[in-house]
Amino acid sequence: LWAPFPDTRALMGLFDTLAKNALGSMLGGSSKQDPAAMLSGLLSEAGGIEGLMSQFQSAGFSSQFASWVSTGENQPLSEDQMQSAIGADALQGLAGKLGMNTGTVLPLLAQFLPQVIDKLTPQGQIADNHPSSGQLQSVLTSVISSGLGGLFGGKK
After folding, report:
1. Local structure of 148: helix, strand or coil
2. What average pLDDT does the segment 120-144 reach?
3. What is the C-alpha to C-alpha distance for residues 1 and 19, in angstroms, rounded to an integer?
4. Model pTM?
5. Which residues fall within 8 angstroms of residue 69, CB to CB, at 6 or more apart?
6. What count of Cα atoms within 13 Å lies in the side-chain half-sphere of residue 129?
7. 90 compared with 73, residue with greater pLDDT
8. How many whole angstroms separate alpha carbon 155 and alpha carbon 146?
9. Mean pLDDT across the stretch 122-130?
10. Burial class (CB within 10 angstroms; exposed 0-12, middle 13-18, buried 19+) of 68
């Protein structure tokens, strides 16, 4: 017989675990590097969030990136636009670190990077150009949890 969870925190802990496992599965399950460490590496190579913003501006996507930082709605980028902004070499390096091909990494970046930048800039400005691995892990878990919640009829 099914019994409801008596403790909401236990349910959220279970959901966080499921979200992390889902992220691992989406990243091939055999990734060579933790997703938060991978994101940290991407930001470090770009010069932090501000450096990443400069890359997107140079590629002609300044309004999209600005929308991710602002408190308004995030403007999407297509996979091709994301590849143009990130750069083929950086994308290949990122995919290699994860033990995946670029065709798998690119849709994940297009889907989740806007949400990650949005959550790293909750006040509508870049307060911390180089977020810690703990911050990145927390943001990734939150973004994945929101995405999975949407799959099961919850709010995004």
Report:
1. helix
2. 87
3. 26
4. 0.74
5. 49, 53, 117, 118, 121, 124, 125, 126
6. 10
7. 73
8. 7
9. 91
10. buried
